[in-house]
Amino acid sequence: MLQTIEIETGAAPRLSVIWLHGLGADGHDFEPIVPELGLHEPMRFVFPHAPLRAVTINGGMRMRAWYDIVGFGPDAPQDAAGIGESAAAVRELIDREVTRGMPTERVVLAGFSQGGAIALHTALREPRRLAGVLALSTYLPVADTLAAERSAANADIPIFMAHGNADSVIPLAMADASRRALEALGYKVDWRVYPMAHAVHPSEIGAIGVWLEGLAQGPE
Fold this sequence. Notes:
Blueprint: E1 4-8, E2 15-20, E3 43-48, E4 52-55, E5 61-64, H1 80-99, E6 107-112, H2 114-125, E7 132-136, H3 146-149, E8 159-164, H4 172-184, E9 189-194, H5 202-216
Parallel strand pairs: 2-3, 2-6, 6-7, 7-8, 8-9
Antiparallel strand pairs: 1-3, 4-5
Helix pairs in contact: 1-2
Protein backbone atom coordinates (compact mmCIF):
# COMPACT_ATOMS: atom_id res chain seq x y z
CA MET A 1 0.00 0.00 0.00
CA LEU A 2 1.14 3.55 -0.70
CA GLN A 3 2.72 5.42 2.19
CA THR A 4 0.57 8.33 3.30
CA ILE A 5 0.46 11.43 5.46
CA GLU A 6 -2.82 11.96 7.30
CA ILE A 7 -4.50 14.95 8.90
CA GLU A 8 -7.81 14.87 10.76
CA THR A 9 -9.45 18.23 11.34
CA GLY A 10 -11.64 16.92 14.15
CA ALA A 11 -13.04 13.84 15.84
CA ALA A 12 -15.32 11.46 13.92
CA PRO A 13 -14.55 12.74 10.41
CA ARG A 14 -17.56 13.01 8.11
CA LEU A 15 -15.50 12.87 4.93
CA SER A 16 -12.25 11.27 3.78
CA VAL A 17 -10.31 13.15 1.11
CA ILE A 18 -7.61 11.15 -0.69
CA TRP A 19 -5.49 13.91 -2.27
CA LEU A 20 -2.85 13.07 -4.89
CA HIS A 21 0.13 15.36 -5.53
CA GLY A 22 1.59 16.37 -8.88
CA LEU A 23 4.63 15.12 -10.78
CA GLY A 24 7.87 15.28 -8.78
CA ALA A 25 6.21 16.37 -5.53
CA ASP A 26 5.15 14.15 -2.62
CA GLY A 27 2.40 13.77 -0.07
CA HIS A 28 3.60 16.79 1.88
CA ASP A 29 2.81 19.11 -1.03
CA PHE A 30 -0.79 19.89 -0.09
CA GLU A 31 -0.51 19.46 3.69
CA PRO A 32 -0.37 23.24 4.24
CA ILE A 33 -3.65 23.78 2.39
CA VAL A 34 -5.79 22.02 5.00
CA PRO A 35 -5.94 24.84 7.59
CA GLU A 36 -6.56 27.34 4.77
CA LEU A 37 -9.77 25.62 3.66
CA GLY A 38 -11.81 27.13 6.50
CA LEU A 39 -13.53 23.86 7.33
CA HIS A 40 -16.12 23.43 10.06
CA GLU A 41 -17.08 19.81 9.41
CA PRO A 42 -14.44 17.30 10.62
CA MET A 43 -12.59 15.59 7.77
CA ARG A 44 -9.73 13.17 7.25
CA PHE A 45 -7.14 14.09 4.60
CA VAL A 46 -4.98 11.30 3.20
CA PHE A 47 -1.96 12.46 1.19
CA PRO A 48 -0.18 9.50 -0.46
CA HIS A 49 3.32 9.50 -1.89
CA ALA A 50 3.48 8.36 -5.52
CA PRO A 51 6.02 5.63 -6.34
CA LEU A 52 9.40 6.52 -7.81
CA ARG A 53 9.56 5.90 -11.55
CA ALA A 54 11.46 7.08 -14.64
CA VAL A 55 9.75 9.98 -16.42
CA THR A 56 10.49 10.28 -20.13
CA ILE A 57 9.89 14.03 -20.50
CA ASN A 58 12.42 14.63 -17.72
CA GLY A 59 15.16 12.67 -19.46
CA GLY A 60 14.26 9.40 -17.79
CA MET A 61 15.01 10.81 -14.33
CA ARG A 62 13.41 8.85 -11.49
CA MET A 63 10.99 10.87 -9.41
CA ARG A 64 7.67 10.49 -7.67
CA ALA A 65 5.12 10.10 -10.45
CA TRP A 66 1.74 8.46 -10.89
CA TYR A 67 2.62 7.44 -14.46
CA ASP A 68 5.17 8.13 -17.19
CA ILE A 69 4.73 11.10 -19.52
CA VAL A 70 6.21 10.82 -23.00
CA GLY A 71 4.89 14.18 -24.22
CA PHE A 72 1.99 16.61 -23.86
CA GLY A 73 0.91 16.85 -27.50
CA PRO A 74 -2.54 15.54 -28.49
CA ASP A 75 -0.93 12.61 -30.32
CA ALA A 76 1.58 11.69 -27.60
CA PRO A 77 1.20 8.09 -26.37
CA GLN A 78 -0.21 7.72 -22.85
CA ASP A 79 1.07 5.37 -20.18
CA ALA A 80 -2.15 3.39 -19.78
CA ALA A 81 -0.36 0.69 -17.77
CA GLY A 82 1.08 3.17 -15.28
CA ILE A 83 -2.27 4.93 -14.97
CA GLY A 84 -3.93 1.59 -14.27
CA GLU A 85 -1.35 0.70 -11.61
CA SER A 86 -1.86 3.99 -9.79
CA ALA A 87 -5.65 3.67 -10.01
CA ALA A 88 -5.35 0.24 -8.35
CA ALA A 89 -3.19 1.74 -5.59
CA VAL A 90 -5.80 4.45 -4.97
CA ARG A 91 -8.53 1.81 -4.78
CA GLU A 92 -6.52 0.16 -1.99
CA LEU A 93 -6.64 3.45 -0.09
CA ILE A 94 -10.41 3.61 -0.61
CA ASP A 95 -10.64 0.06 0.75
CA ARG A 96 -8.68 1.11 3.84
CA GLU A 97 -11.10 3.98 4.49
CA VAL A 98 -13.95 1.47 4.38
CA THR A 99 -12.21 -0.74 6.95
CA ARG A 100 -11.93 2.34 9.17
CA GLY A 101 -15.68 2.86 9.02
CA MET A 102 -15.91 5.46 6.26
CA PRO A 103 -18.46 4.46 3.60
CA THR A 104 -17.31 4.99 0.03
CA GLU A 105 -20.16 7.51 -0.37
CA ARG A 106 -18.11 9.77 1.91
CA VAL A 107 -14.76 9.39 0.15
CA VAL A 108 -13.52 12.16 -2.15
CA LEU A 109 -10.72 11.63 -4.66
CA ALA A 110 -8.71 14.80 -5.20
CA GLY A 111 -5.55 15.68 -7.04
CA PHE A 112 -3.39 18.31 -8.67
CA SER A 113 -1.99 17.95 -12.20
CA GLN A 114 -0.92 14.31 -12.64
CA GLY A 115 -2.64 13.48 -9.37
CA GLY A 116 -5.85 15.05 -10.62
CA ALA A 117 -5.69 12.93 -13.75
CA ILE A 118 -5.52 9.78 -11.61
CA ALA A 119 -8.35 11.04 -9.39
CA LEU A 120 -10.61 11.53 -12.41
CA HIS A 121 -9.60 8.26 -14.05
CA THR A 122 -10.18 6.23 -10.88
CA ALA A 123 -13.38 7.84 -9.62
CA LEU A 124 -15.27 7.63 -12.89
CA ARG A 125 -14.53 3.90 -13.16
CA GLU A 126 -15.01 3.03 -9.47
CA PRO A 127 -17.97 0.61 -9.12
CA ARG A 128 -18.80 1.91 -5.63
CA ARG A 129 -20.41 5.29 -5.18
CA LEU A 130 -17.98 8.05 -4.13
CA ALA A 131 -18.68 11.50 -2.69
CA GLY A 132 -16.94 13.57 -5.37
CA VAL A 133 -13.86 14.33 -7.45
CA LEU A 134 -11.63 17.37 -7.06
CA ALA A 135 -9.52 17.84 -10.21
CA LEU A 136 -7.09 20.76 -10.09
CA SER A 137 -4.97 22.01 -13.01
CA THR A 138 -5.39 18.69 -14.78
CA TYR A 139 -6.96 16.80 -17.66
CA LEU A 140 -8.83 13.56 -18.38
CA PRO A 141 -6.33 10.80 -19.29
CA VAL A 142 -7.09 7.93 -21.70
CA ALA A 143 -10.40 9.65 -22.38
CA ASP A 144 -11.21 7.37 -25.31
CA THR A 145 -11.85 4.39 -23.01
CA LEU A 146 -14.11 6.16 -20.50
CA ALA A 147 -17.40 5.60 -22.33
CA ALA A 148 -16.87 1.83 -22.21
CA GLU A 149 -15.34 1.66 -18.73
CA ARG A 150 -17.38 4.24 -16.81
CA SER A 151 -19.25 3.26 -13.67
CA ALA A 152 -23.01 3.66 -13.42
CA ALA A 153 -22.63 4.23 -9.66
CA ASN A 154 -20.70 7.45 -10.30
CA ALA A 155 -22.53 8.67 -13.42
CA ASP A 156 -23.66 11.79 -11.56
CA ILE A 157 -20.72 12.20 -9.18
CA PRO A 158 -19.96 15.84 -8.25
CA ILE A 159 -16.87 17.02 -10.16
CA PHE A 160 -14.99 20.21 -9.28
CA MET A 161 -12.45 21.21 -11.95
CA ALA A 162 -10.28 24.32 -11.64
CA HIS A 163 -7.55 25.61 -13.94
CA GLY A 164 -5.31 28.60 -14.48
CA ASN A 165 -5.72 30.77 -17.56
CA ALA A 166 -1.91 31.14 -17.78
CA ASP A 167 -1.01 27.48 -17.27
CA SER A 168 1.93 26.63 -19.53
CA VAL A 169 2.30 23.03 -18.26
CA ILE A 170 -1.24 21.85 -19.01
CA PRO A 171 -2.79 24.53 -21.24
CA LEU A 172 -6.28 25.75 -20.39
CA ALA A 173 -7.52 24.52 -23.79
CA MET A 174 -6.48 20.97 -22.89
CA ALA A 175 -8.35 21.08 -19.59
CA ASP A 176 -11.39 22.65 -21.23
CA ALA A 177 -11.44 19.88 -23.84
CA SER A 178 -11.50 17.37 -20.97
CA ARG A 179 -14.37 19.24 -19.36
CA ARG A 180 -16.34 19.17 -22.60
CA ALA A 181 -15.62 15.45 -23.04
CA LEU A 182 -16.99 14.79 -19.55
CA GLU A 183 -20.09 16.88 -20.17
CA ALA A 184 -20.68 15.07 -23.47
CA LEU A 185 -20.96 11.86 -21.43
CA GLY A 186 -23.49 13.48 -19.10
CA TYR A 187 -21.23 14.43 -16.19
CA LYS A 188 -21.96 17.69 -14.39
CA VAL A 189 -18.75 19.66 -13.93
CA ASP A 190 -18.33 22.63 -11.59
CA TRP A 191 -15.77 24.43 -13.79
CA ARG A 192 -13.63 27.29 -12.46
CA VAL A 193 -10.89 29.34 -14.18
CA TYR A 194 -8.48 31.45 -12.13
CA PRO A 195 -5.83 34.07 -13.05
CA MET A 196 -2.80 31.87 -12.39
CA ALA A 197 -0.22 29.57 -13.93
CA HIS A 198 0.20 25.88 -12.95
CA ALA A 199 -0.62 26.58 -9.33
CA VAL A 200 -3.40 27.04 -6.78
CA HIS A 201 -5.11 30.42 -6.36
CA PRO A 202 -6.24 31.78 -2.94
CA SER A 203 -9.81 32.18 -4.22
CA GLU A 204 -9.67 28.59 -5.46
CA ILE A 205 -8.76 27.36 -1.96
CA GLY A 206 -11.82 29.07 -0.54
CA ALA A 207 -14.06 27.55 -3.21
CA ILE A 208 -12.65 24.09 -2.52
CA GLY A 209 -13.41 24.48 1.19
CA VAL A 210 -17.02 25.45 0.47
CA TRP A 211 -17.40 22.55 -1.96
CA LEU A 212 -16.02 20.01 0.53
CA GLU A 213 -18.23 21.37 3.30
CA GLY A 214 -21.24 20.87 1.06
CA LEU A 215 -20.30 17.23 0.48
CA ALA A 216 -19.71 16.64 4.20
CA GLN A 217 -23.13 18.09 5.06
CA GLY A 218 -24.86 15.89 2.48
CA PRO A 219 -27.08 12.91 3.28
CA GLU A 220 -25.72 10.12 5.46
